[in-house]
Amino acid sequence: METYNIVTNKENIDSAQFSEFTDTGHDLKGHSLKLSLSRNRSRVRRMFFSQRVVADWNQLPQYVVDAPSTNAFKNRLDKHWRDDTGI
pTM for this one? Predict the structure, then answer.
């Protein structure tokens, strides 16, 4: 949820300092708010929150990241996880 808030500018954090968006184009799978994973030589940097969440964030479907609010994002994410695990 924190990544959603940062990426959609609902937090008072510059999303450009958090991570960069990937130029996805229209023919690639996924959603329009994909983040790029920066290369890091430092083991410490690889453990930063902004690096650890990229893979999970990029795997979300478009309808989840298009949520109009944090509560809607949470509900859509919960539904996505339920549908994905078959619960």
Answer: 0.69
Cα 51 to Cα 22, 57, 74, 76, 81: the distances in Å are 14, 11, 21, 23, 21
Q: Which residue has the higher pLDDT, 48 or 65?
A: 65
**What is the amino acid identity at position 10?**
K
For the chain, give every domain's residue range: 2-85
Kindly state the tokens that stand for 31: 């959603």
DSSP 2-70: HHHHHHTT-SSS-HHHH-PBP---SSSSS-TTPBPPPP-S-HHHHTSHHHHTHHHHHTS-HHHHT-SSH
Return d(Cα 51, Cα 19) in angstroms, integer. Answer: 8
- Taking the CB of residue 4, how many other CB atoms lie within 10 A of it? 22
d(CA 57, CA 46) in angstroms, rounded, equals: 16
